[in-house]
Write a structure and sequence with these properties.
Oligomer: single chain
Shape: globular
Structural class: alpha+beta
Strand content: 15-25%
Number of strands: 10
Radius of gyration: 20 Å
Amino acid sequence: MRQELREVVARYVASHGGPDAVSRTAVQDVILMCSTKERMPFRKAYKPSLCVVVQGAKRIELEDRSFDYSAGTALIISIGLPGFGSVTQATKAEPFLGMTIEFDIALLREVLDQMPSAPRPAEERLGVFVEELSDPVQDCLIRLVQLFETPDAVPVLYPATVRELYYRLLSGPNGGEICKIARAGSHTQRIAEAIHLMRGNVGQPLSIEELAHAARMGVSSFHQHFKTLTSMTPLQYHKQLRLLEARRLMVAESASVTSAAFRVGYESPSQFSREYTRLFGTAPKKDAMFLKGLPVQL
């Protein structure tokens, strides 16, 4: 890991939120993080993104897989997934430092289309993997963070910097996996369409036929590809989205347990409470009261 990248990230978080906070930037899709202590697993819905560790280490736990990644590496998520994220290495002397960049699919597709020798799509697999940060990628990240220190320059220079970042990633060892995020007609892109439908209708019942239609696949093929990419069935995935949204409603909007349950499509508050407790490990009301003191995590 380049020392210069550590320094620019540490400098930025020190002046934009300080330790144990999420530091926003002039671009909504890019955030920086700092933690002076290890953090217990926290469940959230991850979007397609580049999750960089600059100092310390993190872990993401999915339905049946876990990934550890440390300084000098990044977790690349090619399709939206619910999972548990935790900081596994951090101290006051050497706090965890990281940054997350959500992929701009349209811009990624533009870069892919302009490459004279585009990467060939890799064999289908779970839409998460860890990659070491090459020197060219680290150069882009350094310039990106430096750019945020001059907000007036962001509208002019950010697009070119992130285009170069995408080019470096697509040209790297996992370019064949990353290209599937943007390549029209790929199974990853089609499943992403079904996930988009789920997110937009989190409180509504959706049949497997409706989801397969959104993905432009037959039911059997859709079910198979969905599980390969997410390690979950569509039903399991939609249920987790509903419970995550209910959690957000209780914390961010102070909705009652019953109100949150009905708003995400449950007809029985008792069933909602059972499934919520099974997923998050604690009862809805108790969990919401605890999380209200940690709004930054949501």
